[in-house]
Design a protein that fits this description.
Length: 322
C-alpha cells in the first residue's frame, strides 16, 4: 500500500493540519506514520504503537540500535555521573541513547550520549514545538540539532500528568533494553521498566546504597529479575552489541558541573546523606582536596554534625534536620 500523500487530514482538523504543514516546512521537522519506512521498526512491534510521530531532528536515528536510560528527576550527584558515563560509553559504541528529557537522570543521559557518535533521542510529553521542563530548553535545542526529539502529541500540546506514562511506552518501545539508574519505589522509571518487560525488552538496573531511597526501585527490579549492571560493557554484552574501547575499560565518569552545590559543606553533607564514606571516597565524589575535606570533617565533628566510625569512615548525624 502506498503512503497517503497527505495523511494529516486523517487525524487533525483543518486548522491543526495547516499548523502542522507550516511546522513541516521548517528544516529537520518530520511527520512519520506507521506506513512510512522511516517509522522506527522496534516501536512498530508493540501492541499500542503510536499511529504517528512528530520528529524534530534526524529520523534516521530511529532505525539504529537503541538503549533507554531512565531514572529519578531528583537524582543524586553520583546517579547523574553514572547516567552520563553509561550514556557516553553506549554512544561511543554506536548505540543511540533514549530518554525522556526530564531533569536529573534523563538530562544527564542525554548529555553523555551527545558526546559520542550514537547520539540521543528524547521522547517528550508535549507537542514537538514545546519544551518541558523549560530548564532543559538549551539541551532540547542541542538534541534537535544533533539527535532527535520525538512526540506523539499534536503541536501545541502542553504537558499533562497522564502524558508521561504514554511517553514512557515509547521510550521502552524504541529500545532493545532499558537501564534504570536511580528510582524510588513510586518512580515513573519503574513504570518504564515494567512496560519494557511487557514489550519483551531487557531491563537493567544499577544497584546503590541500601540506605538510599533512590536505590529502592532499582533493588526491587533486580529482585524481580532485572539484570544488575556495573558497567556499560554489561549492557552491550547482554544485548550482543559491539564493544567500544570506552565501554570495555573502566572509565571514570565526568562530573556534571550543574549538579555540584556551590557551598562545599552542602556538597559534603549531600554525599554523606545515605551511607558512611572514607576521606578518600569523599575527595573522589566531591572533587575537593584531602586538606579541604579533612578540615571540614574536623569542624563538623566538633559541631556534632558528623561522627567518625571504625575504618576511617564518617557518618552524617541527624540528617533529617536538613
Amino acid at each position: 500500500m502506498r503512503p497517503d500523500p497527505d495523511p494529516l487530514h486523517r487525524w487533525f482538523d483543518p486548522d491543526q493540519a495547516e499548523a502542522t504543514r507550516q511546522w513541516l516546512s521548517q528544516p529537520r521537522n518530520h511527520f512519520l506514520t506507521q506506513e512510512d519506512r522511516a517509522y522506527p521498526p522496534l516501536l512498530r512491534e508493540i501492541a499500542d504503537a503510536p499511529e504517528f510521530l512528530f520528529v524534530k531532528g534526524d529520523p534516521a536515528l530511529l532505525a539504529k540500535p537503541m538503549v533507554a536510560i531512565v531514572g529519578s528527576r531528583h537524582a543524586t550527584r553520583q546517579g547523574c555521573m553514572d547516567a552520563e558515563s553509561f550514556a557516553e560509553a553506549l554512544s561511543t559504541s554506536g548505540i543511540t541513547v533514549v530518554s525522556g528529557l526530564a531533569t536529573g537522570i534523563d538530562a544527564a543521559a542525554h548529555r553523555g550520549a551527545l558526546k559520542g557518535p550514537g547520539g540521543t533521542v528524547a521522547v517528550i510529553a508535549t507537542g514537538a514545538d514545546r519544551v518541558y521542563p523549560a530548564s532543559n530548553r538549551e539541551l532540547a535545542r542541542e538534541i534537535a540539532s544533533c539527535g532527535a526529539l520525538v512526540s506523539e502529541f499534536p503541536l501545541g500540546t502542553a504537558a499533562q500528568k497522564w502524558h508521561f506514562p504514554k511517553r514512557n511506552r515509547i521510550i521502552s518501545g524504541l529500545s532493545s533494553g532499558c537501564v534504570v539508574v536511580e528510582a524510588t519505589l513510586t518512580s515513573g522509571s519503574i513504570i518504564t521498566a515494567q512496560l519494557a518487560l511487557e514489550q519483551g525488552r531487557e531491563v537493567f538496573a544499577i544497584p546503590g546504597s541500601i540506605h538510599s531511597p533512590f536505590s529502592k526501585g532499582c533493588h526491587r527490579l533486580i529482585r524481580e529479575g532485572a539484570k544488575l549492571v556495573e558497567t556499560a560493557r554489561d549492557i552491550l554484552e547482554e544485548l550482543h552489541f559491539p564493544l567500544s574501547p570506552v565501554a570495555a575499560g573502566d572509565v571514570s565518569p565526568a562530573v556534571p558541573e550543574d549538579t555540584i552545590p556551590r557551598d562545599p559543606r552542602d556538597l559534603l553533607f549531600r554525599e554523606l546523606l545515605h551511607s558512611p564514606l572514607t576521606l578518600d571516597q569523599l575527595c573522589l565524589r566531591t572533587g575537593l582536596t584531602a586538606g579541604q575535606v579533612s578540615l571540614m570533617l574536623t569542624s563538623l565533628e566538633l559541631e556534632g554534625e558528623v561522627s567518625s566510625l571504625p575504618g576511617g569512615r564518617y557518618q552524617r548525624l541527624d540528617f533529617r534536620r536538613r
